[in-house]
Predict the structure.
Amino acid sequence: MTCLSALSIGQWTHHSWLMRARPVRGERALADASARLLAEYPQLTRIDFTKTLPCVGDLPRAACARLFRVTAALACSRSVRRVVTRSAHLGFARNVAPHVLRDIQKHARGEQDDLAVGATPNFFDRRDMTAAGLALALRGLGDSGDVQHTWLRLRMPRDIVEAATRFNAIDIPVDAARALIDDARLLMRGEPC
């Protein structure tokens, strides 16, 4: 089992969880933020990285959010196939993920019904798609424990985590949620799945 260093927790967590307007700068501020986080979430000292989603922890926050948006789009790929006009393509690329819409539309997942993620996400809303993808990623963690769920939630802004509660991915099998995340990662890297 690998443990996070005290400083890496404050650095990895989104600043909205640290009750700050901006990201932490400086070693002293980082140490204070990390100490506050560990006081509020002491279970973070016991995180087991073998039970987390391997591709999520390595990514910068913006890429992690993009991975969640592509995952949500794959979960609803049959509906995403209906995005056909040029303005819709541009809106999707601008708000969700540039350069992957065609690949999502061609994906084998589009032959099946959309997965039930609770509320239907707005395909052109960055926040909605990130929140739906976060709900799927949390489902992909399955029953790996509260520590892993907390760790993943702290990565995203508070408002995204709150919006993710609208999306209930409990009926989606854990393996299916993980497969969506893996396929989304491959699409983001430009590889066929």
